[in-house]
Write a structure and sequence with these properties.
Layout: E1 3-5, H1 11-26, E2 46-50, E3 55-58, E4 67-71, E5 77-84, E6 87-91, E7 97-101, E8 105-106, E9 110-113, E10 122-127, E11 130-137, E12 142-149, E13 152-157, E14 160-165, E15 169-170, E16 177-178
Antiparallel strand pairs: 1-4, 2-5, 2-8, 3-4, 5-6, 6-7, 9-12, 9-15, 10-11, 12-13, 12-16, 13-14
């Protein structure tokens, strides 16, 4: 689990209605080739990471809303799915969603090793074309992402650095090339 969960309230409905109004006001016709962006001008959805800890995730885009849960570790990857003023709606690797102030987020890319797997380990290779295993990494371990070519990502965890199949990471999209040229 990525954080402690607390009860949700009816303020979620109010937040949803406010957000629908904001989205309707900022939405315009999109061409088939356009990339969806938020008010910040950045692509939506996109991945980021938690800058610090602890960070409260709220049920709505304001400090007036209840805390849904708290991230207790910095660097955790989150997917930003919506923007509203200085508040970003984020999703964690378990699919839980809530709102956080953008000042608590970092553009530094991190990922979790196969959080959907309950046991086993994922091989980190010396190079994508080299079967030599540098380390075997357990599911849900947080790694720093240096780059991805659409199939493999170069990652670092503790003193180990190597390549992991991109499909085994939560924090990068399938076939995503990072950083963008």
């Amino acid at each position: 689990m990525t954080g402690c969960k607390s009860g949700l309230s009816s303020s979620l409905l109010i937040a949803g209605l406010a957000l629908l109004g904001a989205v309707a006001a900022t939405s315009g016709p999109a061409s088939a080739q356009s990339v969806p962006t938020g008010p910040s001008g950045l692509q939506l959805p996109r991945f980021a990471s938690m800058k610090s800890h602890p960070v409260n995730i709220r049920v709505g885009p304001s400090r007036d809303y209840d805390i849904a849960w708290t991230f207790t570790r910095s660097g955790i990857p989150v997917e930003i799915t919506q923007e509203f003023d200085v508040w970003y709606r984020v999703r964690d690797s378990e699919g839980q969603e809530g709102w956080v102030q953008k000042s608590f987020l970092s553009g530094k890319r991190t990922a979790l090793i196969a959080p959907w797997e309950k046991s086993g380990s994922i091989p980190m290779r010396a190079r994508p074309d080299n079967p030599t295993v540098v380390a075997n990494v357990e599911p849900n371990v947080q790694v720093e992402v240096a780059n991805c070519d659409g199939t493999w990502c170069k990652v670092t965890v503790e003193r180990y650095s190597g390549y992991v199949e991109q499909q085994r990471l939560w924090g990068v999209y399938p076939k995503e090339k990072y950083p963008v040229d």
